[in-house]
Amino acid sequence: MSKIISFSSDNNFSDSLDHIMEKSGYNNRSRFLRDAALHFSDYKQRGDLSEMEDDLVIEGHMIVYYQHGIENKLLDIRHSNDLEISTYNHSCLKHSHTCVDIIQAIGKASNFRKVIAQLQDTSSVDKISFITAPLRTEGCC
């Protein structure tokens, strides 16, 4: 069941919103505003990883782009007690000649920061991204 929520805006804001929506790949303004509101709310509640409380338990995906030679360091992370690893995926990107590992994990924000700092200080690591899972109180899983 849907509920209609509406608001008024001036023409400049409306035109800017439509432009941002289209550049973001959305064709539906309602879905764009819904996703923007959820993202903004999540960010305002938890902030960026660097700003989160040390003991806050979060879940998300770490994406590590690297060159061969650091597999042992990644193996150590997978077997440490810092994070609970749910899934782990390795791929080779042929065009960019880069390896990428996607690590789905749950743990304290301080532990994610620790692991990311360890990897950033590794010479063969090209880039690390971390995406937190959205906050939900109910859902499918």
Short description:
The chain is α+β, with helices and mostly antiparallel strands and 141 residues long.
- Overall radius of gyration: 19 Å
| Count of separate structural domains | 2
Fourth-level CATH superfamily of the largest domain: ACT-like. Chain A, domain 2
The level of helicity is 25-40%
Span between termini: 21 Å
Low-confidence spans: pLDDT under 50, at least 5 residues? Answer: none
Main β-sheet description: 4 strands, antiparallel
H/I helix tally:
4
CATH architecture of the largest domain: 2-Layer Sandwich
Strand order of the largest sheet: 2-3-1-4
* Average pLDDT taken over every residue: 90
Number of strands: 4
In terms of DSSP E residues, the strand content is 25-35%
CATH class of the largest domain: Alpha Beta
Shape: globular
Q: H/E order of the elements?
A: HHEHEEHE
What structural class results from the helix and strand content?
A: alpha+beta
What would you note in describing this structure?
- The structure is a single chain.
- With 141 residues, the chain is of the alpha+beta class.
- It folds into two domains: 11-46; 52-132, Alpha-Beta Plaits.
- Helix content is 37%, strand content 28%.
- The protein is built from four helices and four strands, in the order ααβαββαβ.
- The chain has a four-stranded antiparallel sheet.
- The chain is globular.
- The mean pLDDT is 90.
